[in-house]
Amino acid sequence: MTREDQRLEDLRQGKGQWRRWGPYLSERQWGTVREDYSANGTAWEYFPHDHARSRAYRWGEDGIGGICDSHQRVCFAPAFWNRRDPILKERLFGLTGHEGNHGEDVKECYFYLDATPTHSYLKMLYKYPQSEFPYARLVSENGRRTKADPEFELLDSGVFDGDRYFDIFVEYAKATAEDILIRITAWNRGPQSAPLDLLPTVWFRNTWSWRDETQRPKLWRPPGQRGCELICLETSSYGQRWLVGEGKSSLLFTDNETNFKRLFGVENRAQYLKDAFHEYLISGNEFAINPAQTGTKASALYRLDIPAGSAATLRLRFTDQNPAAVSAQSPFGQAFDEVFRVRIAEADEFYARYASGKMTGDARQVQRQAFAGLLWSQQSYHYDVGVWLQGDPAFPPPPPERKKGRNHRWRHLHSADVLSMPDKWE
Question: What is the pLDDT of residues 262-281, one digit of tens each?
Fold first, then answer.
């Protein structure tokens, strides 16, 4: 048996938690049926992309190349800003069913490159333009086209011309089932130096707004860092966890709470809000982030300028091991890179058994990425239709039309599991 086979066998025998953390985070939660509390089932209009950065989700979370636990209580994903975009890039953008000339469609360039069944190793690629992301043009150009016309894609917009983009590779390697090493490598493919802000972000799915406030988790910046950045997380489910970032950065804190004032013109229920990092970076609002450095959403802000043809790498660790209690050895020493080397070698060994000896190198790579796509498309899917139809206790009851609307016959459905989805744009 390979090492990956042994981990799978241990799981079958109820040993270990190698699948507790995985790529279960959707790349889009806005505009989905679960978040639709409208009277007539218009999910796209009820929760558009423009609301996503400011509105706390009810049933799930989203991010680019992110991970979470199987119940999606704790989430991690990187966010990006090229210092030109009008929106902090925290999730995928696409056209709604009414905007696309061929229906809904993601308008991004991303690729799942590698994955093992226990998620002991994961790798994906996101291609991020260095010029302003063409949100409005993608909507308007596709809106004027008919069903007989081809779709207007991101590549058609010219934002990748002259190789002026970043290849951002996101990798995860588990030292143990609860000690996850993270490596984010951004390559500047363009002919000139280009700025890039990287924001590795950790947050809690908002459950406290719908039930007892005593269930509210917290994260904060503990004192006594040793040449690295540290965010401590406290949850009732998993106890304490730490996100450790190599080098110096600016730590940003806020709460995963809806910005009611921006969206609906009424007073906010919280002082610090979900869109705080967008407000801080793009709007220059220093009052958006919590100076006490505590909350339910936090990020380490790394402000980079990457020379042409060069790369910058960030190393982080999401772990159950208290950095203050372990030895003086750096969490990013030689052993960090060795874990990646070993996990990649184990993945090679595992998948070698599934490749025919007649396959070319290219065919093996295509097969490997196909497996990766299946594994990355596993998603934590929580949906209690009975609760969804009745509405949430802390909010006004839903309109009466919903009693006979979408899914009203599905009150028996209560999903709270990791499912294989067609793609995580869904």
Answer: 999 999 999 999 999 999 99
